[in-house]
Design goal:
Elements lengths: L5 E2 L3 H14 L4 E5 L4 E6 L1 E4 L11 E4 L3 E3 L2 E8 L4 E5 L6 E6 L2 E6 L2 E4 L3 E2 L5 E5 L8 E10 L2 E13 L10 H24 L5 E3 L1
Parallel strand pairs: 4-15
Antiparallel strand pairs: 1-12, 2-3, 3-5, 5-12, 6-11, 7-10, 7-14, 8-13, 9-10, 11-16, 14-15
């Protein structure tokens, strides 16, 4: 079964990503661990006071070549910010336990198979802030990715409290340019999909 967050990596998409990064600023990330065979990136996230972040929080995982992992786990530990809690994502596909409002540990009973693609937001959690959360506060989520035979990989993602969901959206001239870039992606995507058809991240039962 293909993971719902798996995305094909193509040269065209990489170029488009560079264009977007130039417009909206540097990509937010708490760090990238580059390893062999597994690399992991830890993206940052914004959450509105009194609401839930639009995107789930989870590591992006990729490999340098064909790789299979078993007994995969992702652990989340939130610290440094009040009024914020972590909950497992319904779309995560894993089995999660929540020892507290600030700690979640998710495991995957399936075999995780890489064939040259990236899995985004792997075994993710949802981030929710209470109305009492102070706008501008920033917390840290320590994320640990582990698997059988793999040295655990640990990184951090920042969680920043913002004023509302409107502050999460990109509007105005920047949105127009992003929309134009989206049309470019639509035109080039067909070629990218054909060239990347065989490069998929799969879960094997």
């Amino acid at each position: 079964m293909r993971h719902p967050y798996a995305r094909h990596l193509t040269g065209v998409l990489a170029v488009a990503g560079v264009l977007l990064a130039t417009v909206v600023g540097p990509a937010q990330a708490g760090g990238i661990h580059r390893g062999d065979p597994i690399s992991v990136a830890f993206p940052d996230i914004k959450v509105p006071a009194g609401g839930t972040a639009i995107d789930p929080l989870g590591p992006n995982v990729w490999s340098t070549g064909p790789t299979k992992l078993t007994q995969v786990k992702v652990a989340y530990d939130l610290s440094g910010v009040a009024g914020v809690q972590l909950t497992p994502s319904r779309d995560g596909g894993g089995e999660c336990v929540t020892p507290s409002r600030t700690r979640v540990v998710c495991s995957d009973p399936r075999v995780l198979s890489f064939e040259g693609t990236t899995i985004e937001h792997y075994l993710p959690v949802m981030v929710k802030a209470a109305k009492t959360a102070e706008i501008g506060d920033t917390g840290t989520v320590t994320i640990t990715f582990s698997a059988k035979g793999l040295t655990p990989i640990t990184g951090t993602s920042k969680v920043r409290i913002v004023g509302g969901r409107d502050s999460l959206a990109v509007t105005g001239p920047v949105a127009g340019l992003i929309g134009g870039t989206g049309l470019l992606l639509l035109g080039a995507g067909a070629v990218g999909v054909l060239t990347a058809r065989r490069r998929r991240a799969l879960f094997v039962a």
